[in-house]
Amino acid sequence: MSRSIDIAPISGALGAEISGIDLTQGLTPDALKTVKKAFLDYHVIFFRDQENLTPDRQKAFGQLFGSLNVHPYVAGMSEHPEVMEIIKEPEDKLNFGGGWHSDMSFQEYPALGSILYAVEVPSYGGDTLFSNQIAAYEALSEGMQTLLEGLTAVHSASREHSARGASAQSRKSMQAVEAENAPEFEHPVIRTHPESGRKGLYINPAFTLRFSGMTKRESKPLLDFLFDHARDERFTCRFRWRPNSVAFWDNRCCWHYALNDYPGERRHMRRVTVNGDRPI
Ligand code: SIN
């Protein structure tokens, strides 16, 4: 007998928990249709109690949405290069993803989505925050929306993954290379979601360096305003992890932030990242 699928929003802005789906088994066509719709409707979806989701099964779930990314600067598992282990050991000071960002916006073809599986979670803290960038865009005045419409921005991993950047420094527990000379790619500041057609902000504090054709100094005031606006709590949700929880977020229209509030505790996650298209 198949279990009934239930979808429960976790905040008014984005995010829903889906029950009645077992990702450790293949999805029926109906279940896949429901998951795809919920992903577009809620931008980030969560599944609980996915006991022993193997790297192969996690990859198989990701492949239902597209090809898988191999991170250029952070090593994946030796047998599964597309699976990144995100580990913070009790003695690590910084964590991976500890700032608002959209995964892989520093690539020419940034990520469609990321699937994060909790192997081990701290006894307190370690939640992940998400922010809806469609809602952030829609809350801007018409004047600001018009001003941003024609702008593109330069994205690169050169700061975040540099020797001084949080993502390179943080952990002996993850193997990362420095990306001082990482390439720069330009993406529109307002992105049209390729599936829903909705417009959203597509810049982020980790990887967006400046507006195209402007200096960093010229770009800073408006970028700072937009970064501040885009993380306003009315656009956000917060997910409390348990072992065997899974989150699947849409990087085309969401930011996320891994909170670093569990000193002395261990957190171990596995991420599979689905490739996306070039933002327009
Ligand atoms: C990430 O940025 O992919 C990590 C998110 C998390 O560990 O909660």
Structural overview:
By secondary structure, the protein is α+β, with helices and mostly antiparallel strands. It has one domain (6-275): Double-stranded beta-helix (4-Layer Sandwich). Helix content is 20%, strand content 26%. It is built from 6 helices and 15 strands. It has helices at residues 29-42, 55-63, 133-138, 142-149, 166-169, 216-230, and strands spanning 6-9, 16-19, 44-47, 83-88, 111-120, 128-132, 152-155, 185-188, 190-192, 199-201, 208-211, 236-239, 246-250, 254-258, 267-275. The strands form 4 sheets. The chain has a 7-stranded mixed sheet with strand order 1-2-3-13-5-15-4, covered by helices on one side. The chain is globular and about 50 Å long. The chain starts with 5 loop residues before the first strand and ends in a 5-residue tail after the last strand. The model has no long low-confidence stretch (mean pLDDT 94). Succinic acid (SIN) binds at residues 86, 96-97, 103, 114, 116, 128, 256, 258, 269, 271.
Please sum up the structure shown.
The chain is of the alpha+beta class.
Q: Specify the oligomeric state.
A: single chain
CATH architecture: 4-Layer Sandwich
How is the main sheet built? 7 strands, mixed
| Percent helix range | 10-25%
CATH topological fold name: Double-stranded beta-helix
Q: What would the principal axes of the Cα set say about the shape?
A: globular
Which compounds are bound in this model?
succinic acid
Give me the number of helical elements: 6
Strand/helix succession: EEHEHEEEHHEHEEEEHEEEE
Count of the separate structural domains = 1
User: Gap between N and C termini, in Å?
Assistant: 44 Å
- Number of DSSP strands? 15
Beta-strand content estimate: 25-35%
Annotated CATH homologous superfamily: Clavaminate synthase-like
Instruction: Indicate the radius of gyration in whole angstroms.
Output: 18 Å
Strand order of the largest sheet: 1-2-3-13-5-15-4
What is the name of the CATH class? Answer: Alpha Beta
Query: Low-confidence parts lasting 5 or more residues at pLDDT below 50?
Result: none
